[in-house]
């Protein structure tokens, strides 16, 4: 019977090292650590909305709305982390402000995959905010009449933006 190599000779330390390093040597880049929260929240929200379209149980829709709120706030935090990370190597000063300035200076430089990623992120932020305000203002009545088709279409477009933004972001970070 063969033992797994990670479990031999200090394997526990090697398994725990990434988690311990979050405390002992915090990362310079925060965006990669937090970006998965809005992705998960918005995908699970969309799945719950599909389930709700078949089952029409109010508790399912309420959970989807909770995930939408969590997705919005975690998306804002991830975007702020992205701006911070964009300013990491731009000299002395506030990294967040430097990142904002860099993204503003390169706003229409579409040959840059980072610019495309930022535009898709901005689009997703806008779509998610529209959906959040619409759902908050109309309540569960957003699922009545023609509004349900528009809201569903906006949700689908948001998921497309999420996947496109994630794809481009993955190309940037996983070369």
Structural overview:
The chain starts with 10 loop residues before the first helix and ends with a helix. It has 7 helices and no strands. The chain has one domain. The protein has 175 residues and is mainly α. The model has no long low-confidence stretch (mean pLDDT 86).
Beta-strand percentage range: under 5%
Largest sheet: none
Please, what is the oligomeric state?
single chain
The tally of domains stands at 1
- In angstroms, what is the radius of gyration? 20 Å
Global morphology: globular
Mean of residue pLDDT values: 86
What is the distance, rounded to the nearest whole angstrom, between the alpha carbons of the first and last residues? 37 Å
What portion of residues is helical? Answer: over 70%
Number of helices: 7
Low-confidence residue ranges: none
Structural class by sheet pairing and helices: mainly alpha
Number of strands: 0
SSE ordering: HHHHHHH
Write the layout of secondary structure elements.
Layout: H1 11-24, H2 31-34, H3 36-55, H4 58-86, H5 95-105, H6 113-138, H7 147-173
Helix pairs in contact: 3-4, 3-7, 4-5, 4-6, 6-7
